[in-house]
Design goal:
alpha/beta; Rossmann fold; 2 domains; 5 strands
Length: 282
């Protein structure tokens, strides 16, 4: 490879990524080839803005595709989203980007209508016919819009969408770093919890029912033990701890069988407290 080509490749690799969200399959009379043409049009405008264009589902590794999409939607400095034809996957991914309150440029063709929820955000429009001169004008506008949106997003107090509706705490994706040994240890802990659950379930199936214990008490007791094993805590510390009692109550209430047996939340809480008390004094 020549020195000039090597420099071009290096420059491209050094560029930040601009994620692209758009339809890729035939929809509403638009073929797959149509979307390939649209992707090329968007990519050229993104490159002119100084970014490396990538569909958010693209990645260099073989990670789970849903995880990859969410991570790219969150991490990309800027995203261009084509909402033409109102593809459901596209609208969902746009919703994620807006929930993260990160900068996005929305585009659509001149045939598709606006969506009610996002209509207050400016949309750049291009002709569905992809006529040459109109597309060139659109690309120029898109390039400038990307640059200006990124500059605006770097200002203090920036909010892409949520500021229109009040104050919100924006969701974040936490990143964790650790050694290979830490990862293995974490996986072993998860495996240990799963084995404990299997052991509990096998005992529940095979163990005889004590004659003095009614069905409701038995099932509630089994679920309490299950809860303690999942949390890795002793049952005795739940007694008198309101937060843990409430959490255990919600866990028990999530089982339809328990709800049917106890008839009401009051009866369920009484059964739970009675079981906790018996384990406390035994």
């Amino acid at each position: 490879m020549s020195k000039e080509k090597e420099e071009v490749v290096q420059n491209v690799q050094d560029r930040p990524t601009c994620g692209i969200i758009m339809p890729i399959s035939a929809i509403d009379g638009c073929s797959e080839q149509h979307w390939l043409d649209v992707k090329k049009i968007l990519s050229e405008a993104v490159e002119q803005a100084g970014y490396d264009p990538k569909i958010v589902s693209d990645a260099d590794d073989s990670s789970v595709i849903q995880k990859r999409i969410v991570q790219n939607i969150y991490k990309n400095e800027i995203v261009v989203c084509d909402v033409s034809c109102k593809n459901s996957n596209v609208m969902f991914e746009l919703g994620l980007r807006l929930a993260f309150d990160k900068p996005v440029v929305i585009v659509k063709d001149d045939v598709s209508g606006f969506s009610f929820d996002t209509s207050l955000i400016e949309h750049l429009t291009y002709p569905r016919s992809l006529s040459y001169y109109d597309i060139k004008e659109f690309q120029s506008k898109l390039t400038e819009k990307i640059k200006n949106t990124v500059l605006e997003s770097r200002k203090s107090g920036y909010s892409m969408f949520l500021k229109q509706f009040g104050e919100f705490t924006v969701s974040k994706i936490n990143s964790k770093e650790g050694s290979f040994e830490d990862m293995v240890s974490s996986r072993l802990d998860d495996l240990s919890k799963q084995i404990s659950l299997l052991y509990i379930n096998s005992r529940r199936i095979n163990a005889p029912v004590p004659p003095t214990q009614n069905r409701t008490d038995r099932i509630v007791r089994e679920r309490i033990v299950e809860y303690c094993n999942m949390r890795g805590i002793q049952e005795t510390i739940i007694w008198g701890n309101r937060d843990l009692e409430d959490e255990l109550f919600r866990y028990l209430e999530s089982f339809e069988e328990i709800r049917q047996l106890c008839k009401s939340p009051i009866e369920l809480r009484k059964t739970m407290i009675d079981n906790l008390y018996r384990s406390q004094v035994s």
